Amino acid sequence: MKELTKAEEEIMQVLWELDSVFVKDIITQLPEPKPAYNTVSTIVRILQQKGFVGHEIHGKSHKYYPLISKEAYTKSFMKGFVKRYFSGSYQQMVSFFTKEDKLSLNELEQLLNELKAKKP
């Protein structure tokens, strides 16, 4: 799965949140300064070419929806991130963030227990 640019990810966040929208709806959800309609429309078409977005035709307009779930993208992104920056080792990644964020072992254990509880 290809990585998203910052602008593409910003638009995907809106699509993941709202599920099915027109370009004008995407623009209303974006922070100020609002990008031009043509800019957002171009990014959405790029996302379609990459296979992230599909559309339905409504008269002369297109309504866009995500083809890739946020969870699937996050999983793919994180795998690539861990591979590139931590030699594929989640242990190294956790160790890094534990040191950087001064996360205590108790806090880490609590987080792991919460994650285990969420698993089906």
From TrEMBL:
Signal peptide: none
Pfam families: Penicillinase_R
Keyword field contains Transcription: yes
Gene3D superfamilies: Penicillinase repressor domain (1.10.4040.10), Winged helix-like DNA-binding domain superfamily/Winged helix DNA-binding domain (1.10.10.10)
One Gene Ontology biological process: negative regulation of DNA-templated transcription
Keywords: DNA-binding, Transcription, Transcription regulation
InterPro entries cross-referenced by the UniProt entry: BlaI_family, WH-like_DNA-bd_sf, WH_DNA-bd_sf
Any one Gene Ontology molecular-function term assigned to this protein's record: DNA binding
Stored SUPFAM superfamilies: Winged helix' DNA-binding domain
Keyword Chloroplast: no
Family from the record: Belongs to the BlaI transcriptional regulatory family.
Protein name in the entry: BlaI/MecI/CopY family transcriptional regulator
